[in-house]
Structures are given as C-alpha cells and as structure tokens.
Amino acid sequence: MIANLQAHYGFTCMPFTASVPASSLFASAAHKEAVARLRWLISARGLGVLTGEVGAGKTGKAPCFYTADLIPQVEAALAAEADERNRNVILAIDESHMLTGDQLEAVRMITNHNLDSGSPLTVLLIGQPTLRRRLRVGDMAALDQRVQLRCVIPSPAVTAAEADGYLRAHLAHAGRSDTLFSDDAVRVIHSCARGMPRAINRLATTALLAACTAGKTIADESSARTAIAEDAAAATD
Ligand SMILES: Nc1ncnc2c1ncn2[C@@H]1O[C@H](COP(=O)(O)OP(=O)(O)OP(=O)(O)O)[C@@H](O)[C@H]1O
Ligand SMILES: [Mg+2]
Fold this sequence. Notes:
alpha/beta, Helicase, Ruva Protein, domain 3, Rossmann fold, 2 domains, five-stranded parallel sheet, 11 helices, elongated, binds adenosine-5'-triphosphate, binds magnesium ion
C-alpha cells in the first residue's frame, strides 16, 4: 500500500511522517514564535516550559535538542560538555507532564546548581497542557518561580491560511513541489483536523491513498471526505 503510494506519486520518502528534518519544517506563525522564544531562552540560559495539545508540534519544534533521562550524573555530564567543548547545553525533557514529583524536584536541583555556578545550561520542560497545572500546585512553587519562559503552542497550531503551505512543505520534503491537494481538499482536511499537525498528516496520507486508489493525480474534496470517513470508522472500531 505504502510502496504503491510512493510509486504512484514519485515520492522519495513518505511525506507526512515525523522524520522531517528541522530545516524542512513548515514555518507557521506559531512555529516561528516558539522558535524565537526558545532562542531567547537559550541565550538567557534559563528554565522554560513549552506546552501544547497532543500532536501540536512540540517535539517537532525541538528536534535538535537532546532528550535525557533524569539521572543524577546528568548535571556533571552537562557541565563538562559546556566547559570542555564550549557548547551551549540544553536539557530538553519531553513528555514532562509524566514526571513524578521526585523527578521534578531533581529538575529544580539542576536549575539551582545552574544559578549558583553560572554554568551555561538551558532546561526545557516540554509537555501537554497538564504540565502547566502541575507546576502551579503548591509544592512545585520553588520550581515554578524559576520558570523564565512559558511558551504555549496555540490550537490550531496551523491556521486555515497556512494549511496549504504546511501540506506543501511536507510534499516538498518527499520530492514533489507541485500541487497534490485541491483547495477544497486542503480546507476539508484542515477543518476536520482542527489545525493540528499530526491529525492533518494522518488525513493527508489517507486522502492521497484514496486518490491513488481512484486513479486520480491529485487528492480532491472527495478523496479528503473518504479519508475523514475512514478515520471516523477507525475511531469507532
Ligand atoms: N512546523 C511543522 N512543520 C512540519 N510538520 C510539523 C510541524 N509541527 C508538527 N509537524 C508534524 O506533526 C507531527 C506531530 O508533531 P509532534 O510529534 O511534535 O507533536 P507533539 O506536540 O510533540 O505531540 P505529543 O504531545 O503527542 O508528543 C510531527 O510528526 C510532524 O510531522
Ligand atoms: Mg511529542
């Protein structure tokens, strides 16, 4: 099925996957703002919290960061990296809404050390919106007070006006820079996915499959509606 799809459209790889390199990500307004604010955080070497709904693009935004397990040695290892190699060290902890109280306490200790020693470490907690509420609870106050940047990826992460550019960025990554979705298909997919990148990706792939099966060269509104119907059927399975 996937091989057929690649051959049918002449893709060099599957277009709507997570493997898009940072340089090929679509620069939506939400994306640009988050990147600018994260750059500021790195220059300020502070503690930041990046939140957004499931599939909004949080992990897509930070592909160049290391994700590390929170182990006691991490602090020493990061400091050595900074001193010996003169690198800007960023500790990005994805899925931070899953961290236990003890683990968040360990993050606090790391930022503590950071402040005291002036070591060039940026700590970024990335997670779903529950992370924000979690940090507001009383016993997290000491950590919450240290947060220098609170960045929320808005919903929709991709606006209706950006949807076409978003799809084209993914298609270009797979080697097609011409039109593969009709305007109606773009509108229908964006609206059903409520502007959330992961949902757009899924519907876009299924719409391309539907168009391929019907022997069409581009995904039109009917291909998009077939994709949405299949998605709805799968959800009730
Ligand atoms: N700016 C962007 N340009 C291109 N693709 C994007 C962009 N943002 C997100 N995506 C796509 O959306 C998919 C989902 O994004 P991502 O994995 O970052 O979501 P998330 O917010 O981390 O979700 P979760 O909370 O489930 O971890 C990615 O695989 C990527 O293909
Ligand atoms: Mg993620």
